[in-house]
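User: Here's a structure from my thesis project, written as structure tokens. My advisor, Dr. K., wants to see whether a designed sequence matches the one we expressed. Can you design one independently, without my sequence as a hint?
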């Protein structure tokens, strides 16, 4: 009987260690306590945006997605947004902010990836925005969720009447 008691105690200890290891790999409860409850992030403090952002307009800095467009951003009319290169299910929402010098684009990301956006071409007729996603680290466990954050893309000049062309490149 003594042997089986030791075996049960060892099994319980190994099970507890496994549960603690899995909890540590997924994130600690304290990090979740600081996460936004609504699924949205608040706007960053003024001055933390891109170099062209106004101190009075909270614009998310590059690489810092939000889930709602900044307050005061103006939606670019659908007839000035060309999303033909994107999959049908990909969102095609574009907003202008900061006097038209910042585009706020609805992007797509999932799992461990994070949405990226860059103005790769800016002419008098159009602005081409390349949307991509960061690659997940090798060996990292990721969820299979799909998110549609808005990301900011700085422009060299105000958008004006130019068309916004959205394209998608492979994860980086």
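Assistant: Designed independently from the structure alone:
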């Amino acid at each position: 009987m003594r042997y089986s008691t030791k075996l049960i105690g060892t099994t319980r200890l190994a099970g507890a260690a496994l549960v603690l290891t899995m909890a540590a790999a997924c994130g600690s409860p304290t990090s979740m306590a600081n996460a936004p409850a609504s699924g949205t992030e608040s706007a960053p403090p003024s001055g933390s945006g891109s170099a062209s952002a106004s101190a009075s307009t909270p614009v998310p800095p590059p690489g810092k997605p939000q889930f709602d467009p900044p307050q005061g951003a103006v939606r670019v009319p659908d007839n000035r947004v060309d999303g033909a290169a994107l999959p049908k299910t990909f969102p095609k929402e574009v907003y202008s902010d900061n006097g038209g010098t910042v585009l706020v684009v609805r992007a797509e990301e999932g799992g461990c990836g994070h949405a990226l956006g860059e103005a790769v071409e800016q002419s008098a007729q159009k602005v081409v925005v390349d949307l991509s996603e960061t690659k997940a680290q090798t060996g990292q466990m990721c969820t299979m969720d799909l998110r549609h954050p808005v990301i900011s893309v700085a422009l060299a000049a105000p958008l004006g009447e130019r068309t916004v062309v959205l394209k998608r490149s492979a994860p980086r």
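When you compare it with your expressed construct, this may help: The CA atoms of residues 95 and 156 lie 16 Å apart.
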